[in-house]
Amino acid sequence: MLAPNYAMPSRKTVSNNLLLQVYNDTFQKVSKDLQDATSVALTTDGWTSINNSSFIAITVHFINSETKLCSRLLGCINFNEKHTANELSNFLKKIAQEWKLENKISAVVTDNASNIKAAIRLTNWRHVPCFAHVLNIGIQNGLLQLQPVLKKIKDIVEYFKRSSSALLKLNNIQKQTGVEVLKLIQECKTRWNSAYNMMSRILKIKEPVLSTLAIMNNELNCITNQEWELIDSACKLLAASNEHTVTEIASTSTSDIWKSFDEQVSSLVGQNNSSVASVVEMDKYMNECLLSRHMDPLKWWSERKHIYPRLYEMMKRRLCVPATVVQIDNRQALVTKDP
After folding, report:
1. What was the pLDDT predicted at 143?
2. In this predicted structure, what is the pLDDT of residue 86?
3. What is the pLDDT of residues 212-245, one digit of tens each?
4. To 10 degrees, the CA torsion angle through 29, 35, 39, 44?
5. Which pLDDT tens digit goes with each residue over 272-330?
């Protein structure tokens, strides 16, 4: 042992003293960060645990004095009230008051549930719909046309998940044919790209799956050639959207979607409004070179905050607003997170 004379603290000491001290230190640090912030954005989402307990998480986002985007989880709170617009509105306002944020909130990003949208309206804060949820709704509507073939795939996936002997046979056939041993993926209704992942995976191991079903359960071997072609076409179409989900929004992707976006932005350069351009600061800003999408805009603003002091303050109110609430789904305690 490194320190044989060291006495380990008891469970009571850890619970009543050490954890409380860590919490208070973290609370003071977060409070100081938010006191210094001039503008913030909130993201909030709720879910139900396996014990049927309801929780709501609230995260604040802001740009600090070093022009870095920061996030702080204000709480992951057991919410036992009815999820009505009034109750949610009162809850959000209470959190904002506790952290002294009432006059700093630029926007609140949530999913498209009617109760939370109504709650944000009652607070008179600006509501921004979560991009990931909007994308999910749009693609889920499109996937309705594929439900018959998706049902067949889900039955196959479920069969291999329930039958250990069938799964073992599938793995052995993959090894015998010299392909990578992969597992089938089941769809999750709340994540549209899980349907894409499910279809994409079964396409990758199509031959081993069909061979195994022919031996173990030929009744499930019912996907027609036309349906296989439909699956392949759907995957090609969804691949581009899958690339631009939450984990890829800020990537250096060069897909056709981003190329189209870049072309549209480039076409707008130089179309200055003469009345606005008369303001010296705006005029100088509008004549700046277009920033590449692959560059960090916060770094650019940090280097020019003294050149454009008014626009810099406006930027902090806008660029602190995240595109999605998905990033807060797995946070379950008061934590500090910096880039």
Report:
1. 86
2. 95
3. 999 999 999 899 999 999 999 999 888 877 765 5
4. 50
5. 554 443 357 887 888 888 888 888 999 999 988 888 888 888 899 889 998 888 654 44
Q: Tokens 């022919």 map to which residue? A: 214
Which amino acid is present at 307?
Answer: I
Per DSSP, the three-state class of 231 is helix
Task: Measure the CA–CA gap between 90 and 122, rounded to whole angstroms.
Answer: 9
Distance CA 136, CA 180 (A): 30
pTM over 0.90: no
Nearest-angstrom CA–CA distance, 9 and 22: 15
Interatomic CA distance for residues 327 and 337, integer angstroms: 12
Detail the DSSP E strand segments found in the chain: 40-48, 54-63, 69-78, 105-110, 127-129, 336-337
**DSSP for residue 67:** S
Residue 218, Cβ neighbours under 10 Å: how many? Answer: 10
